[in-house]
């Protein structure tokens, strides 16, 4: 299978696409990103790396960071995490608030904002935000094997200044007793969302989820094999907001999107993939990124719903 | 891999289990089923068949029928179906009504009751309920390769007599213009839920979803390969009511449960599985059936989130 | 106070009004009503009658009938009614379904559709729809002192043919055990909504609510004094769908509107008023009817929130 | 009418009552109030004052302050207020969040917490919390004609420390653009809720709503006559959380309750009444306070739904 040829063709199609969606504009740093960009990186299980388009341009990974924060939280408190956050898909933003009220302040899953804020509270433990943010940054550099990974301070500040809905969610959960330190956890949360990475760095960072939880460079388990599998399951059912079912239906690969236009996608035992294009569809997921992954799945047979022989 | 030994061990565990959940009791025919039963059948991709426990006892397949009705509807109207029903997970029964209102009478997916009633309306087309019910019965007999598959008329009648919530949903969707024939569609729906099958018949009936949509006996496509894959995706994200995320997380195999205590589970390219135990957990899925599939996944490595080599 | 002069001036203003709202069009009989019409009738506590505009034209009283049905139900089962229906305002149609689910099938109040359907079920008792409908018609003729009051059979039939949302609500409540006979109760409900009356007849029919529950013609109590007061309280808090607060705020008189464009309004001890103009505002209440009552309140000082001396 | 005899009898009944409800306990200062207390004060339109029981004991007026803050806000921005807050009843706390989401961050009315926080934001204008809090305190002293009215700093601090749900609501509205200064507005809100007053002071403070908006001591308009009437209308439809309909039904007098156990009630042109008993019913309103007002209404004929002659 000639991956390079496949992603070159995809990149050509995406670069020429007319309808590119609309980039997030709730903070200036996201609004001014050039929507014409598209990048893709594929890191194979055997270590080969393929890139095309703007695969080495940094973008704000935003909600994709929730996958890594979840991995850290599981390492810290294990299955106890699931007493504070659920594992069920959540539907629309509208529903997420209704459900939070209906279900006593327990967010539906760790990939909606409310759930990710609880995860931040867990990762923080009783610690200092500054240190926790440093831990997260070091964790990503380790996973990506790249010390250039940075947090975009402008984005972090903007998130904090405009994040009223997240502040509301955190306080709401606190009223149900499901938050320890609202202010510090939000600080961590806003910084993790501001991680700035390239497609290549992101695909590298996702390798442990391809390899049963093992960092292929160091050979150490980042998470246990069973947890790696379960994080992939969560990505499949909950990774794309209210477009998760659609993504599973069309693409069939566990993935997590962010409003910065990035998507990470994991084919267990095969490849870690990152795509990026700033324009979003009406569910808040990268329009061309989703389409590129659908094309990639068609061309390679990569889908967890394909018989292994068909891949 | 010695499947027989594995399922014998599972059956021994399930037969001895103390906590067996509570059987559905909203109609007499379900309430009087002996909760001590447990059955499992595995039909391998290569045609080998393994059974254990009460694998040849008939039970009411209930919502499992939604998988087969969906397959028929896709054959009838193709992708047009998706203008009338969504593909996103739906959360609790509470949410399903809220969402139906919020989303203008379009049910979230074909596996919640509202969605399945729309599917029945589609399968019915402009036809007669009696004929459509006959078509469904013949379809199941063909899939299972067994003319003994029956519809339990007592169950069908009881469903019709007590199904006020389903009647409400159908009329509600009609008020939004998303139903053609409320009465006939409900008749079809109540009868398809009353299909009475054994684990063995059910596992046989699921074979086309293992084989890229192809009936392995006749070699004919029941659905296209892409649709088979997508039905599996829908089962994974939406197949277990508000326990779908949990099932994906723990078991990682596309499946569909019914309140009769049955579950069908599909490992693409590997096996079609049916389990049955009448007691339900708090999400309305077979308690021991879910646990048995978790055990089976652990023992065999069957999970769409496992690297192919790990299976 | 020269009531005739006041209502003549109001009628002149309403007849000349540009913005008249939009008539209900969900059934043909309502859709073809001439929107240019406006009528008002005031029956004073001392028996004097004032009319202006189209006060003697029949219109479909629709939800106004809920006031009379409630009076009948209270006569039949007394305070037991309140175990099956609440007394709290209900917000939007959206909320009424959410609340019905949230509150276990008990409608918020007898003036939303769900509540009125329960009231119909109560008025029906174990009886025949035909007889109950006859009872309701006789009750209205007695209250209005006019044997010309009729039920519009075309409207009743149209309501039944298009009332899917009401059928849904009834079945939904049945699923919670809060309906005895869905079909018969709906038949009664659709017929009571189809009562056809003039402003004059309606204002006459409302007299008992002005006179502490007593029919001023016969001197007999239609409802007890305390119940008359409480029906008025319910009209004030719940009489205008999601515009009830607004109506209380602007007009300050207990009232009940219908989608036919009519409104009945009761000033305890002072007057029974009926207005009618087919065009509705965005909350489903007669646009000019509401405005006319606001003008009447301003001109007469009639408002339950005005000190008695200020009237 | 011998008001003193009536309220003495009521006080005797309430003092002897077995079921007294449960006092609010979310902050220590409320939790430690002796539940055995009951007080009532009636200030007649002609200036006569009647008190009984613990009418001179201070209690936390909590949400009753919303009536006075609304009066200030209307004086400050007039009808523009209604672009930021609605005038419709709101149902349960559950619904208030659902509705806030459904209606784009516009609270249903100024007497639910979200609405009162918007009102605080309006009263604050661009000012300093400290000054605004001073203004509110001076306003209450002026209305009550009593410089002893205080703000309980312990209560204000506790409210701020535990008010996560209110902080959530404020930030939530901010995310919709319906708050200017979250932190300062909340500071004002928490302090106004901490106003500590006696029944006598509270009944005195309510006099302007009896007198068409005019302070009977100074003869100056606190609010215009039409606004006084409308504030009374809002109290009737929205003054008792999800028990507003019930209170209108049973008592029929505009009123506003607080979780401190106090209720203010206004009979236009007749009397300003304050009752207090710490135990709450299941809707969060004073159990004995509500009952006492029902008794008072029965004994005096005071109800806006009674014909004037019947009072």
From TrEMBL, chains A, B, C, D:
GO terms for biological process: glutamate biosynthetic process; L-glutamine catabolic process. It is an enzyme of class 3 (hydrolase). InterPro entries: Beta-lactam/transpept-like, Glutaminase. It holds the Pfam family Glutaminase. It comes from the Bacteria. Keywords: Acetylation, Hydrolase. GO terms for molecular function: glutaminase activity. Gene3D superfamilies: DD-peptidase/beta-lactamase superfamily. Coiled coil: none annotated. Substrate binds at residues 63, 113, 159, 166, 189, 241, 259. The keyword Manganese does not apply. Belongs to the glutaminase family. This is Glutaminase. It comes from Sphingobium boeckii. The lineage of its organism: Bacteria, Pseudomonadati, Pseudomonadota, Alphaproteobacteria, Sphingomonadales.
